[in-house]
Each structure stands twice: as structure tokens, then as C-alpha cells.
Amino acid sequence: MASLLQDRLTTDQDLLLMQEGMLMRKVRSKSWKKLRYFRLQNDGMTVWHARQARGSAKPSFSISDVETIRNGHDSELLRSLTEELPLEQGFTVVFHSRRSNLDLVANSVEEAQIWMRGLHLLVDLVTSMDHQERLDQWLSDWFQRGDKNQDGKMSFQEVQRLLHLMNVEMDQEYAFSLFQAADTSQSGTLEGEEFVQFYKALTKRAEVQELFESFSADGQKLTLLEFLDFLREEQKERDCTSELALELIDRYEPSDSGKLRHVLSMDGFLSYLCSKDGDIFNPACLPIYQDMTQPLNHYFICSSHNTYLVGDQLCGQSSVEGYIRALKRGCRCVEVDVWDGPSGEPVVYHGHTLTSRILFKDVVATVAQYAFQTSDYPVILSLETHCSWEQQQTMARHLTEILGEQLLSTTLDGVLPTQLPSPEELRRKILVKGKKLTLEEDLEYEEEEVEPELEGEHESELALESQFETETEPEPEPQEQNLQIKDKKKKSKNILCPALSSLVIYLKSVSFRSFTHSKEHYHFYEISSFSETKAKRLIKEAGNEFVQHNTWQLSRVYPSGLRTDSSNYNPQELWNAGCQMVAMNMQTAGLEMDICDGHFRQNGGCGYVLKPDFLRDNQSSFHPERPISPFKAQTLLIQVISGQQLPKLNKTKEGSIVDPLVKVQIFGVRLDTARQETNYVENNGFNPYWGQTLCFRVLVPELAMLRFVVMDYDWKSRNDFIGQYTLPWTCMQQGYRHIHLLSKDGISLCPASIFVYICIREGLEGDES
């Protein structure tokens, strides 16, 4: 099990010092700063900490959970403590998903640099591992856990304990026979390569062996032609050529002799099935593969709600970290609620709540830094401005000075266009969405725009939902409105500042009254926002009108004000009507974010997904509630075959082993939404076998999303979540495929997977089973 990682652990000076351990200050807040002793474990994959050098230690974090390391100057928390703690001695461990950052302050600049260099090296090594190397490392981790006395050997008693930890319930005699077969040294213990052989015997895939032999004439190998037949017949890769099959053999066959003879062994075949080429997600959909030259309103746009919040909507923390996380996961529309702050500096927070406050200029600087790290396509700043005239001017200055050339401050060609520009034309540009003064219209109309809902779309989010809906009700009559304007103009904070207004180019916020009113009075560069309740009601009452509205104008939908816990709604229902910007509380994991993440996993993860043609046609007859032909209905057959190395839910309870079942959910138009599940397999999370076929009929596959969920059956209470994977129907590969599971936070659970057979037939056929 030797690897590059193991070599570095014994030769790299930084890693050697990290293994000895160092005392550092762990910082959680301005008031919580405590000394802890941190040490890299000998496996090179985990860092433990204790109150003192020889104290009782516990795991702090795994290297595979680390996204990156930042220096102290980039830490929001450490910057607030510069008078107490030296920034140059600090650094931040940033984790994947939603786990809070870990801020540490070393005793010297040199010690901080040792940990920063060492952690960067380890993260790079883990990131660059291929599937086999990850599996080797996973095995090494299990060996470390099973070797209770840490003597580098594993007795049969330790192996029995390990089997329970690995979710395996096995007859003791059979387990002992495998142990003896692997113990080639006959020492009564397993070491290194012997443990690997024991694992291989343990994980022998009978269902894959049977499949392999059904295409192999001699049961020992697949010739080039036999493999080509498999790819065309079972994997439905009709256009596959001999050249491509040969390329796959070269890529996955482990033996040089096999490569020379152009044959694939059983190990090579399994390696192919577990690879990206054997994945359920079509590799052709991973890079940017869609037309990016159409108008912005022709795309679904990954969007965030109250991006500054990393917790709930009432008392949660506001942080620039919310923007960093959203932008790095491909989000292209972020929200900024801006209010008057002290010393003339605008602040960002959820108004009229106890959420903390951050400086507007810090938010803008963060967006400037992270906007295009994941995607080159345009970022939209959705401004909710509640500031006085003076602080609006400050906002405009920060946007102009900090964003510089990134900020789109004029139309692309200097003249009024006839349609929105494309993502391609707006590459690496930041657009401001907000209220705008209208120079072409007379003063009275301009004042109507000044009256604008500067209170913003979320002003009454904390009131009842019925009150919340009033933002989109028809405006008062002109005479009544003029009286309101005169009254409101007494308060300077309600007047829109021209300097800020001038930065809104293509995304002018306007109130929605009706689809007829929008068609008669609004322009393509104007955008309306809808609460989820309002949008869902419109879909039911006038679904086709909403679809047509979204073919020429952008719509933004945001969560109900009653979602004070930062819960989410299902974005699918809004996408069905062509709503482009369905804003999500990205800090909250769950089914809804799985659907969002799965949807935007395609097209390079760039945050823009081209809508189906029937959602881009302004004459479309499509109604999401009543879809009728000529949509290409399809029938999906999914044989759920087996599972591999499913993680244990409670790793501290050695006696418990999961009883897994697989639930398959389809989300799309209402008539397509369905779910089915397999039976559960008792006491086997290591290699459960189901062999059950599920059947689904789908009217509008272009809008369908599939979610595979593995659950631990519990007859006493709700089934427990183990892992999931969500993807668009249009990105699904047919044939024998592995589905590599993700955690609730969307992090890989490698090597956990399920093995399935996928078959799609045209039309509505077959009975549900």
C-alpha cells in the first residue's frame, strides 16, 4: 500500500514537523480563543487535536474534507482581531461543503508557514489521486483503524472487529477461510499486501463476473471485438468505434500484456465500470457543451437568496464567506441587502432582524476576488437598497472603484439593444440588478420609479405570507400615488441616487402587476421578482402565460418570508415554467439543494443551463401543469443491482450494521413526479444485492431530474439517510453504470456506490412494477 503520500510523509520536512505536533491558538470568535495541540497523524490523512501535547486527542479534520488553505490576511475573523493576534501567524483551513472554517494562529510566522505548506501539499496529493489511488488510500485508512494495537499487523480478532466497522456481517468460518487464504506468510496476521488480497476476496463482485463472462468467449478476457459488442449492445453507445474501445482498454487494463494484446481482463473491466466512462453521468455533459450565445433569458441561472447569511434568517451570522461559497460552487446571481451603516459606510444584513452586519465594501471586494474562479460567465449582483442618498453614492463609488473593469457600466455596443446579451458576450463581467431612474420618461413617471420599493422585496418577509404578497399587487391610483410620493420625498433615504441608478444596465427591477401589463409596458431589460407562493400560484392559474413571459424577460423567484430557518423550496416547479433565477438558501443542505446542485452539475458547472426549446419559444403552447404532445414521452427501466462499501451511519456503534434500500425519485412536471424503492437488504452495507427493476413513465424528459437515495431501513422510526446522487435525465447514460454517492453536503463518499442497469425506451410503455 506504499504510495506517493507515504513517501512524502517520511521525507518532507514540513510533514515530519506536523507529525510531531505544534501548539496553536484555535479561534472561533472574538471571545473564544484557546490553545490546542495539533498533530498530523501517521496516515497523513487526518489531523487530531488535544488540550496539551500528551493529552487525550480527538480527530479535528480529514485532509479529504479540506478545500484550500488561506493566509491570515484573508480571514474575516482574524482580521477583526488584528489588535490581539498577528495576522501573519494566522491561517484558515477551508472545508468543502457547509462546514465552518477553522481559524488557527501559530506561535511564529515560520510555524504557520510549515502548516500552510504542508496542508497545501497534502490537499494537492489527495486531489490528484485517481480512483484506484483513492481506493488504496481508503484501504490504508481502514487498516489503520482495524490495527487496534498499531503494530502494523492485523490478527483475526482485529479483522472481525474491522468487518463490523466496515458494515459486513459474515459467517465466522467463511471469514476465517478468507483470512487464512490471504495470510501467505502463515504468520497468523495480515500485513500490507496480504490485507489488500483479503479485501479483494471480500469484495469479489459476482454480478460483474457474470456480466463479464456473458461477453467473454473464454471467461478470462474480453477481446477488442467482444468489448466493442458490450459497449454497443449493453451500454447503448451505438456510434462507438474500434478506436474508442481500444482507447478504453489502454486506459483501464492494468496489465501491459493485456494492453499489447488489445484485451480487457476482469480487473480492467471492473476498473472501466467504476470510472467516469462507466458513470451514470454522461462525460460529454461535464464540460461546457451548450450554446452560450443566446440571450440571458434563455438560460436557467444558478441563484442564491440572502447570500450573506450562513445560518438562519433571524439571528444568523452574516459573512463574506456566504459569497465565497456560493461563487465557488458556480452560483451566478448573489443577493446583497444594503442598509445605512455607521461612519457613512453601508452595511449588509437582513433588515429588522438580529442577524450580524458586514461592510458593503467587503462584500464587493469578495465578489471581485471570487466571481470568476469557478466560471467565466457573468455574475449578477441583485441589490436590495435601503440606504439614504449619501450612502447610495458610497455604494456606487465602491462598486465602480473595487470592481473596475469587471463592472458592466454601459451597454456592450453603446446603443440600446433589442434583446439581452448572451453569457458569452458578458464573459467575466459583473452586472448590477436593481432599481433604475428612467431618463426617457417625464418627471411624473420618474417619480413613480423613485417611489420604488426601496424597502425591497424582502421588507415584510417577517410578516405573514399574506402581507408579504402585497409587494406585487397593483400600484395605487396616480392621484393617491402622488400624495404618497410627496410624503416619502421628505425622507431622503427613499430617493434613488442617479450614481447608483446609472450602474443598472440590463437588469432594471420592476414590480409585477400582470402578464398583460408586463407585455404592454415593460421591456426585455426589466426583471420582476416573485415570492415562491406568488410564483406557484401564477403557474397554476396561468402557466402558459408565465412560460411565454419568461421567453422574453427574466424572472427571479425567492423563498417565502416564513422560511426563517433558511429552509428551501423545490426549484423544479419554477424551472418548469422557465423561471431563470430561482434563488436558493445555499447554506441549507437537503433534497432541494440536491436537485439544484444536480441540475447545475452539467455544462461545466458554469452556473448557466440552456432551457429546452419549448421554454425559449415566445409562441410556446407549453403549460407545466398540463403538458401535452408533441413532447417525446419516454419509459425508464432501472435495475438496481448492488451496492458497494456503503458508509456506516454511526461509526462509534460497532455492533450496528445498516439495512440498505434504494429509493429512486423523479422530479419534473407534476405528472412526471414519482418515487419507487427497493426492498431493504438486512445487515449488509458492504456489498448488498437487490436485483430489483423499477419502471417510470415520463412525459417531459427534458425537464426531469433523477435522484438516487440510499437509506438505512429502520422499522421503529424514519429511515436514515446514507447517500444520494442527483442528475438531469438528459445527462444520464444507459447501460451498466455505477452511481458514486454523495453526502448530504454533496461531498464524495468514495468508494461508496450503487451499480445499476439503465434502459430508456421511447413512448409510454410497460407496466409499473
UniProtKB/TrEMBL annotation:
Transmembrane segments: none annotated. It is a peripheral membrane protein. Gene3D superfamilies: C2 domain (2.60.40.150), EF-hand (1.10.238.10), Phosphatidylinositol (PI) phosphodiesterase (3.20.20.190), Pleckstrin-homology domain (PH domain)/Phosphotyrosine-binding domain (PTB) (2.30.29.30). SUPFAM superfamilies: C2 domain (Calcium/lipid-binding domain, CaLB), EF-hand, PH domain-like, PLC-like phosphodiesterases. Residues 16-124 form the PH domain. It catalyses: a 1,2-diacyl-sn-glycero-3-phospho-(1D-myo-inositol-4,5-bisphosphate) + H2O = 1D-myo-inositol 1,4,5-trisphosphate + a 1,2-diacyl-sn-glycerol + H(+); a 1,2-diacyl-sn-glycero-3-phospho-(1D-myo-inositol) + H2O = 1D-myo-inositol 1-phosphate + a 1,2-diacyl-sn-glycerol + H(+). Pfam families: C2 (PF00168), EF-hand_5 (PF13202), EF-hand_like (PF09279), PH (PF00169), PI-PLC-X (PF00388), PI-PLC-Y (PF00387). Its cofactor is Ca(2+). Residues 616-743 form the C2 domain. Its EC number is 3.1.4.11. It is an enzyme of class 3 (hydrolase). Residues 444-454, 468-478 have a biased composition (Acidic residues). Residues 134-169, 170-205 form the EF-hand domain. Its main location: cytoplasm. GO terms for molecular function: calcium ion binding; phosphatidylinositol-4,5-bisphosphate phospholipase C activity. GO terms for biological process: intracellular signal transduction; lipid catabolic process. Residues 444-487 are annotated as: Disordered. Keywords: Calcium, Cytoplasm, Endoplasmic reticulum, Hydrolase, Lipid degradation, Lipid metabolism, Membrane, Metal-binding, Nucleus, Repeat, Transducer. Residues 500-616 form the PI-PLC Y-box domain. It is found in: Cytoplasm; Endoplasmic reticulum; Membrane; Nucleus. One of its GO terms (cellular component) is endoplasmic reticulum. Hydrolyzes the phosphatidylinositol 4,5-bisphosphate (PIP2) to generate 2 second messenger molecules diacylglycerol (DAG) and inositol 1,4,5-trisphosphate (IP3). DAG mediates the activation of protein kinase C (PKC), while IP3 releases Ca(2+) from intracellular stores. Required for acrosome reaction in sperm during fertilization, probably by acting as an important enzyme for intracellular Ca(2+) mobilization in the zona pellucida-induced acrosome reaction. May play a role in cell growth. Modulates the liver regeneration in cooperation with nuclear PKC. PANTHER family: 1-PHOSPHATIDYLINOSITOL 4,5-BISPHOSPHATE PHOSPHODIESTERASE DELTA-4, PHOSPHOINOSITIDE-SPECIFIC PHOSPHOLIPASE C FAMILY PROTEIN. This is Phosphoinositide phospholipase C. It comes from Piliocolobus tephrosceles (Ugandan red Colobus).
